[in-house]
Known about the structure:
- Chain A is an alpha/beta fold.
- Chain A contains 13 helices and ten strands.
- In chain A, α2 runs parallel beside α3.
Amino acid sequence: MSNxxxxxxxxxxxxxxxxxxxxxxxxxxxxEDYSGxxxxxxxxxxxxxxxxxxxxxxxxxxxxxxxxxxxxxxKKEMVxxxxxxxxxxxxxxxxxxxxxxxxxxxVVEQIRGFKKIRCVQISLDGAYPESNxxxxxxxxxxxxxxxxxxxxxxxxxxxxMFTLQRRNMRDIPSxxxxxxxxxxxxxxxxxxVPIGSGDRISSQLLSPxxxxxxxxxxxxxxxxxxxxxGLISIARSRPLWVMCNRDTxxxxxxxxxxxxxxxxxxxxxxxxxxLPDATVLACRRLPVPIGNLKKxxxxxxxxxxxxxxxxxxxxxxKGKCNSCEFITRCSGCRAMAYACTGDYLAEDPxxxxx
Amino acid sequence: xxxxxxxxxxxxxxxxxxxxxxxxxIETGSPKFREHSELSTEQLTDPDYRLKQLEKLNEGKLPVTxxxxxxxx
Lengths: 354, 73
């Protein structure tokens, strides 16, 4: 089977934010507005689901749909929408991305009832109550750990999302230990992108040297502990990580091999983000609308969006991204470029490559 | 020394203002779509067109995309 045949069989990802409402006010949040304005009711949500299902069917693809918010558990339409999506053959899996503070036994029972649930992703921004709660709010660490245990006791896979900032970078070694001891499936360390509320704390952005230090540390831990067979999976299929392949041979190899680090920004390749009012973004961290599903079809957006074609043509990238040897395997984070410069084609400002 | 710091702060403030302005214009504008006449039949029908172009550039190897691991949050 060729690579493209495999790609055709692979899932197309939708990150669907069904509400802006949230019970937390995390300092780095990409939202600024937490009102319910513009939110869709169940009928409209189903109409969008129909468009997704019809498009996947036309493409002969199957979709993974991650339901999120705001805090998705605050929206009463979440469960009926997930049942609706689950009933479609074109939907291969469902995820719930939550802040983890509203999960109790009855929520776990509901989630467990979905046959296509793949994982629940929960955010944790520190390895200790003090560091996490300074970012996410008092008492959240304790609630999140409780939720993780509830989910794990019901055999539901849990992913932890950690947003890397200056104030929590020193927690990483302990965070990996914590994630391992709590039996987390995957730990994702995502760079903080200063948009929304996060625009007010841009001093939390790490310098290229600091990012390098963290990424190389994590890669060393992965290498060391893979041999001991005890490590959880740490997601490194993202921009900049490709430079952490210590074995220079692996740079020439197919990076889809399991142990190599690095991944290209997926904008325009295999995923889209939908906001509560049906606005479509190329990525949640790149707040530039590329359409709205109340008036534009998914087909129209995917095939004719100017932004998607601009970013797909790597010759358009600027600065050191343009001439980089890793352009086809990294291409930098377009959201980070946009947040820091106002230009989504600019070089990734956190790249440490000379 | 103080003058240099003040100048640097003023420059930084200009950069921030420009960035904010750029972003506001882009984020509040209407989405742009290309005309069908600007795109080939493959571009208009093959959902993997961009992925295939990238595969060609990457010497026939399909790059891993970040969405294949986990979603942003």
